[in-house]
């Protein structure tokens, strides 16, 4: 499904946080949302999830997102917040199963189809072996994978993940990006915010770069992640290389002494 | 344990204690005499004792225990906080203060509904204040502090009313009522409180999905299609109706809502919605047992059940704070 944002403005307690945001995401692509701290990445994601008031257009396959009921929206778009909250000692499987809530009627227990989706989400995130463990007793990286598995189990056409790779070891960071790519290859639309420029350059089909609440650049990593732009947006210098998979980017220092 | 098995066991325990509650009292009635008295009708002493003294007491024990248990469970789920409980967060104290005001104003004598109305209003005000003060930040500390502040405020206002009360007899009446008891209640009290409490149970049950989703925090819950404003309203009204009605007929009975969800939670898969029914049943079991115990310990019947639950509950609370700091931290 196609996720379109036009002319989106968000003000939080009187302060304009996002201004005139426009972007379009096609089905099957992983789009990275980049920008320094405070650029408005999380606010943009929260606006898409309907958690903050926004003016402007947000449409998913022509459906106007703000006009949908919370339940209908939850069947179209899954959102993974940045804060990793696990209340109670729920087992990993019970926690991931919460992703099926928008699809279940009141008082009806999960169907076999629900359970299959839950098991697939566990397998995709490589946590099937932890399914019976209490989610509160896992390492931070394991918890991150459990929580994104919950959003995956929501089985929505669009998935929005705020910093899903932060705090993961390199292998699991790459695994996270591969899992997102696999979800995209099944036809989902993925928007993922990232601080790690190396990951973004390597694994995103396209990136949208925010600066002070506005879109500063948009395009494939190779096109838009240039030395000038990284200096402008992040104030960093970087080493660039290429291999047959694409761009290799490693930040090396600051452009100005801070 | 499978949820059905747990509920059946707790249900049977509750029935057994209900029967025990019907069988205990200063009048020494035999079993056949009791049963005949309960069902036969007529004006014999046994019939009056069973139908007008013991039956309302047992019914209120069951209903109020269920209300306190389920209210504690839903508040803990909603606030993602294992220390939430109508007593600790000040709801019972405000309900009691509302009732005390009615006592003081002299309205209590005018109609049977004045006292419950005062208690209900107190409970609603308390829950609204708590939501305004603590629910947004969602932190354990804020909630407990807000509850402490609210309880202190209610206690101070109650003291003020006692201080100003026109005669010592009125003060004594208020104090005794505050201690919490199921003694000498009539079927009128039952008909008054039970429908309100049942309405509260229903509202609480409707929030089951929402409190499950809230295990992941408010933002994730909202993104799962949970209507947060509606959920807040359901839980506020549900607890206020139930606890207000319970306090109105029995005074303050503390700690049942704290202790029971804790004892039951490890027997469930810990999904907040799965805890509601067993916590209600467990609350009924605990309060009926405590009410039987106060009659057995002091057969003259002067020990108030609210005093006993506080004596058991307060040390339990302390132990909980020490032991579960980790779980509280996670929940915060």
From TrEMBL, chain A:
All copies of domain ABC transporter, residue ranges: 3-237
Keywords of the record: ATP-binding, Nucleotide-binding, Translocase, Transport
Alphabetical list of Pfam families matching this protein: ABC_tran
GO MF, one example: ATP hydrolysis activity
Family according to the record: Belongs to the ABC transporter superfamily.
Stated role: Part of the ABC transporter complex HmuTUV involved in hemin import. Responsible for energy coupling to the transport system.
Protein name: ABC transporter related protein
Organism: Chelativorans sp. (strain BNC1)
Automatic annotation (TrEMBL), chain B:
Principal place of residence: membrane
Domain of life, per lineage: Bacteria
Compartments, record wording: Cell membrane
Keyword set, alphabetical order: Cell membrane, Membrane, Transmembrane, Transmembrane helix, Transport
PANTHER family, per database record: ABC TRANSPORTER PERMEASE PROTEIN MJ0876-RELATED (PTHR30472:SF25), FERRIC ENTEROBACTIN TRANSPORT SYSTEM PERMEASE PROTEIN (PTHR30472)
Membrane topology: Multi-pass membrane protein
Lineage start: Bacteria, Pseudomonadati, Pseudomonadota, Alphaproteobacteria, Hyphomicrobiales
Assigned protein family: Belongs to the binding-protein-dependent transport system permease family. FecCD subfamily.
Protein name per the record: Transport system permease protein
Membrane-spanning segments: 58-75, 87-107, 113-134, 141-162, 190-212, 233-264, 276-298, 305-322
Record-linked InterPro entries: ABC_BtuC-like (IPR037294), ABC_transptr_permease_BtuC (IPR000522)
GO MF annotation list: transmembrane transporter activity
GO cellular component: plasma membrane
């Amino acid at each position: 499904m196609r996720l379109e944002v036009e002319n989106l403005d968000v003000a939080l307690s009187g302060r304009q946080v996002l201004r005139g945001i426009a972007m379009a995401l096609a089905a099957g692509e992983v789009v990275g949302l980049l920008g320094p701290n405070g650029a408005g990445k999380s606010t943009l994601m929260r606006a898409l999830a309907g958690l903050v008031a926004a003016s402007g257009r947000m449409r998913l396959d022509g459906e106007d997102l703000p006009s949908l009921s919370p339940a209908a929206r939850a069947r179209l778009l899954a959102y993974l917040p940045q804060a990793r909250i696990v209340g109670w000692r729920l087992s990993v499987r019970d926690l991931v199963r919460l992703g099926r809530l928008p699809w279940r009627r009141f008082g009806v227990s999960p169907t076999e189809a629900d359970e299959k989706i839950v098991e697939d989400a566990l397998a995709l995130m490589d946590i099937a072996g932890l399914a019976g463990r209490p989610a509160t007793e896992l390492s931070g990286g394991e918890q991150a994978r459990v929580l994104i598995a919950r959003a995956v189990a929501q089985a929505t056409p669009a998935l929005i993940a705020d910093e899903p790779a932060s705090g993961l070891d390199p292998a699991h960071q790459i695994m996270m990006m591969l899992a997102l790519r696999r979800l995209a290859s099944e036809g989902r639309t993925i928007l993922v915010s990232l601080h790690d420029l190396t990951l973004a350059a390597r694994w995103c089909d396209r990136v949208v770069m925010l600066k002070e609440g506005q879109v500063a650049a948009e395009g494939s990593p190779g096109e838009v992640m240039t030395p000038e732009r990284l200096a402008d947006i992040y104030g960093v210098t970087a080493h660039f290389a290429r291999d047959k998979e694409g761009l290799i980017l490693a930040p090396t220092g600051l452009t100005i002494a801070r | 344990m499978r949820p059905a098995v747990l509920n059946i066991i707790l249900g049977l325990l509750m029935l057994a204690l209900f029967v025990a509650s019907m069988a205990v009292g200063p009048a020494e009635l035999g079993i056949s005499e009791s049963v005949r008295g309960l069902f036969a009708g007529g004006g014999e002493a046994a019939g009056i004792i069973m139908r007008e003294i013991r039956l309302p007491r047992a019914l209120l024990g069951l209903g109020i225990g269920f209300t306190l248990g389920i209210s504690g469970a839903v508040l803990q789920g909603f606030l993602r906080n294992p220390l939430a409980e109508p007593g600790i967060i000040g709801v019972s104290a405000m309900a009691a203060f509302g009732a005390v005001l009615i006592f003081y104003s002299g309205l209590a004598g005018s109609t049977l509904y004045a006292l419950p109305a005062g208690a209900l209003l107190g409970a609603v005000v308390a829950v609204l204040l708590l939501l305004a003060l603590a629910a947004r930040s969602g932190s354990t500390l804020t909630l407990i502090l807000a509850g402490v502040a609210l309880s202190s405020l209610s206690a101070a206002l109650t003291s003020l009313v006692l201080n100003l009360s026109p005669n010592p007899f009125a003060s004594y009446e208020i104090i005794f009522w505050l201690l919490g008891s199921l003694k000498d209640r009539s079927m009128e009290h039952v008909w008054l409180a039970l429908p309100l409490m049942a309405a509260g149970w229903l509202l609480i049950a409707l929030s089951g999905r929402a409190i499950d989703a809230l295990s992941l925090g408010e933002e994730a819950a909202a993104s799962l299609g949970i209507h947060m404003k509606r959920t807040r309203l359901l839980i506020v009204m549900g607890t206020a109706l139930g606890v207000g009605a319970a306090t109105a007929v029995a005074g303050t009975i503390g700690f049942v809502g704290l202790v029971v969800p804790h004892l039951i939670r490890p027997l469930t898969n810990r999904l907040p919605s799965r805890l509601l029914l067993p916590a209600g049943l467990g609350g009924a079991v605990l309060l009926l047992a405590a009410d039987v115990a106060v009659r057995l310990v002091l057969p003259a019947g002067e020990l108030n059940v609210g005093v006993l639950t506080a004596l058991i509950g307060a040390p339990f609370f302390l132990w909980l704070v020490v032991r579960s700091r980790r779980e509280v931290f996670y929940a915060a």
